[in-house]
């Protein structure tokens, strides 16, 4: 049996010592730190036969979010199942199998999710929204054949879109020591967001608009944050300026100099 077949179809990865450390690990904490662990589960099945169980287990323990729909307040999971499937599949597919001593880890805290996989990203984290390059092409193809992933670089877009829909803080994409981590934050009021949170949300909103062949405006950013008055427009303008100053977005050169019709694009899209 090839390593690929075992990684996808094994009933018990522990029977394959060279692959057993690549089994997904789910850790659920009782608080916002690692001090009090409620569950620590290491998967035993291959990715294809065990993926549905992994998704169900994550959805069981995921933090809840209150939203208002049709004038009624209801409790929903922090992430719907579809974007959850995408980020879990991404972590499995894009891991570095040559990295030793670790595997994909999914950590659930009371206020956030952290999904980590071994290996530094091969695409810069600031380009996750628009760029795509698979580290393990054969694994990505196999996961697609099992209808686990779409293999069309839509997972990160869907995650950012979900954060905007539920007006959550923008997710973080981090390149840490020999690993890649996605952080999905729980609900937080705008006044509780840091300057970095607001700039990151603005940049991701601009990037999402760009991949849809649209441009960010003050009005679109107001909708992203839920602003509905003149003060909100002023706040949005300040956030846009801070994001421009950070070198992350730039004025659309096709309407340069127009304040009335100001539009913005990711800074990398106008660099020569």
Structure explained in plain terms:
This protein is α+β, with helices and mostly antiparallel strands. The chain folds into 2 domains: 3-185, Heat Shock Protein 90; 190-269, Arc Repressor Mutant, subunit A, CATH 1.10.10. Helix content is 35%, strand content 19%. It is built from 8 helices and 10 strands. The protein has helices at 3-9, 47-61, 81-93, 137-145, 155-165, 195-211, 218-225, 230-245, and strands spanning 25-29, 37-42, 64-69, 72-77, 105-108, 112-118, 172-176, 179-185, 249-251, 264-266. The strands form 3 sheets. It has a 6-stranded mixed sheet with strand order 2-1-5-6-8-7, covered by helices on one side. A two-stranded antiparallel sheet has the order 3-4. Strand 7 and strand 8 form a beta hairpin. Helix 3 packs antiparallel against helix 5. The radius of gyration is 20 Å and the shape is globular. The N and C termini lie far apart (49 Å).
Please write out the topology.
Layout: H1 3-9, E1 25-29, E2 37-42, H2 47-61, E3 64-69, E4 72-77, H3 81-93, E5 105-108, E6 112-118, H4 137-145, H5 155-165, E7 172-176, E8 179-185, H6 195-211, H7 218-225, H8 230-245, E9 249-251, E10 264-266
Parallel strand pairs: 1-5
Antiparallel strand pairs: 1-2, 3-4, 5-6, 6-8, 7-8, 9-10
Helix pairs in contact: 2-3, 3-5, 5-6, 6-8, 7-8
């Amino acid at each position: 049996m090839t390593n690929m077949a075992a990684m996808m179809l094994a009933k018990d990865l522990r029977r394959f010592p060279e692959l057993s450390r690549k089994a997904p690990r789910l850790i659920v904490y009782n608080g916002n730190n690692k001090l009090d662990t409620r569950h620590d589960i290491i998967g035993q099945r291959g990715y294809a036969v065990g993926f549905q169980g992994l998704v169900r287990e994550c959805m069981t323990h995921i933090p809840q979010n209150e939203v208002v729909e049709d004038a009624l307040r209801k409790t929903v999971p922090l992430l719907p199942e579809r974007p959850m499937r995408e980020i879990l599949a991404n972590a499995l597919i894009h891991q570095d199998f040559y990295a030793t001593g670790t595997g994909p880890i999914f950590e659930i805290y009371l206020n956030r999710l952290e999904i980590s996989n071994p290996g530094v990203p091969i695409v810069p984290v600031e380009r996750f929204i628009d760029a795509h390059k698979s580290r393990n092409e054969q694994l990505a193809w196999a996961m697609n054949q099992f209808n686990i992933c779409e293999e069309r670089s839509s997972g990160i877009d869907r995650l950012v879109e979900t954060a905007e829909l539920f007006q959550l803080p923008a997710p973080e994409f981090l390149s840490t020591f020999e690993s890649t981590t996605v952080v999905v934050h729980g609900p937080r009021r705008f006044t509780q967001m840091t300057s970095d949170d607001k700039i990151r949300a603005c940049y991701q909103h601009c990037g999402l608009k760009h991949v849809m062949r649209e441009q960010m405006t003050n009005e679109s950013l107001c909708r992203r944050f839920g602003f509905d008055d003149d003060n909100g427009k002023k706040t949005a303008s300040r956030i846009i300026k801070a994001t421009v100053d950070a070198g992350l977005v730039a004025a659309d050169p096709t309407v340069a100099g127009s304040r009335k019709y100001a539009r913005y694009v990711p800074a990398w899209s106008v660099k020569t």
